Amino acid sequence: MLAKEFAMHKPPFARTVLLALLSVSALPALADNVQRVHQICSRYLDEQPDYYESRSARFSLRAMPQAAVKNHSVTSYEAAPSAAPSAQAIATRDSMVGLEGAYGSVRHAEVAAPPRQNTERYGHYEPNPVHAVAEQPVSTFSIDVDTGSYANIRRFLTQTGRLPPADAVRIEEIINYFDYGYAKPTDGKPFAVHTETVDSPFRSGAKLIRIGIQAKEVSQAALPPANLVFLVDVSGSMYSRDKLPMVKYTLCTLAHQTRAQDRITLVTYADGNKVVLPPTPGNQRQKILAALDSLKAGGSTAGENAIQQAYQAAQRAYIRNGINRILLATDGDFNVGITDFNTLRSMVAEKRKSGISLTTLGFGSGNYNERLMEQLADAGDGNYSYIDSPEEVQKVLHRQLSSTLATVAQDVKIQVEFNPATVKEYRLIGYENRMLAREDFNNDQVDAGDIGAGHNVTALYEIIPAGQTGWLPESRYQAAPAANDKAGSEYAFINLRYKLPGQSSSILINRPVAVGSKPLAQGSNATRQAVAAAAFGELLRGGKYSGNFGWPQTLELARNAQFPDRHGLRRQFVQLIEKAQQLSSKPQ
């Protein structure tokens, strides 16, 4: 009650954050004193940056002349040292909304500014092609537990009022954003596999095979000791309220869940690297928060050297049989040192052999390098999340903390062999940058995605049964083979390989997919939600395979997936579909 009364006297944004915290399920560290956690962490969200720091001096943006604001020129105000602001300068400051330059952006909220140049970077890919089973019966891919694409799409729709670029849409990350309520494993294995086949809404006669993987749960209290290195970008590009202040809030929130047996290290980077906090017991929160308080943005971004130093710090504090993980918080705008994408990715891939994982947390807009963030996490055996709101922090680092930090299976690969007697063609929806060669499946030296405690992963295949009209032209000479009794009863056979953490040899499990399907409307809530998520992604990417299943049908399907919605994520998903439908009818 006291916390709620306190919230009523706070500014609207801070009050929203506190009430959201109050709605989160009880967590060991947060449940004791929600008011105190709010006071400590959400104060970062109310920071109003009014200066940046460079290598040589602190320069005040308060004393900046109006001409500099209009010209959007960094060089025009680099010579203005800090000074007590005049009344005119304060008025100038209060009118600034979107000053952009080499040191990032400053946002104050009253007068519209000229649009900033958008330099966001996304990896380009084409949708997975359709394959004829007679020519290529086997499909192999690595699992992917990343969800950053969905949160980034949400940022575009709700904060910019624009549709996201097609390359920002990775359909598997939209699907995997949601919890499907799959049954947990009961046989001692790290995960359970579930399948269901329904009629496809995208093409008449086609079917959708849903493959769902549910990892076992590990409670937060049962997590092994954690060695966590916070690697924080404090360069000038992080100078805006949706970047460094949100980073501080994120790490403050996580710090309130660490324990005495955990170790926290804080490394920052801009022009150079600095160990702001040496390995510190996780329950020494005052020391951790004091280190966060000291962070200020300024300078260029030498990310490669910082990543190397973070691995060195993690190695020095390495906990055998524990969680050893780097959490990189940045906008990905590396501009000095090694900036080549492939070189950075190769370096991280080599470092993962040391048993230290890399998780990336993306922040901000305008110059956001999403391609780098997603691929570094993949190479580092970690996961990628985009933080667009306090609510996303609660999802990733509160409710799914065990999933984010604790790995229950490594190098998880899926190989599906389709039966040419019953399936004519197929396509995998999403996972374009996770495809593997057929021979990679049995090669334990080939890296693949890891799955965290409690995570679920879902994949959808659209198939054309034998005898139906497909996407591809008919072959003149290759007819479907006659089916024997066994072959005629199966659409496909699923093989799945994984390694237990720390092991070098994989374990194989498999199961068939029986012939037959049910109407989508009679499918499980999990399947209907997954298909709605896939349809949303397909339409955002242009709808190449959507057929006549447009925004109205996608919206209806999402509304009819009746799941418990404790945290409002499905309700929000429906709202995002409505927003995308509205924007799709307008010129972009």
From TrEMBL:
Keywords: Signal. Residues 227-405 form the VWFA domain. InterPro entries: CLCR, Uncharacterised_YfbK_N, VWF_A, vWFA_dom_sf, YfbK_C. Pfam families: VWA (PF00092), vWF_A (PF12450), YfbK_C (PF12034). Residues 1-31 form the signal peptide. This is VWFA domain-containing protein. It comes from Eikenella corrodens.
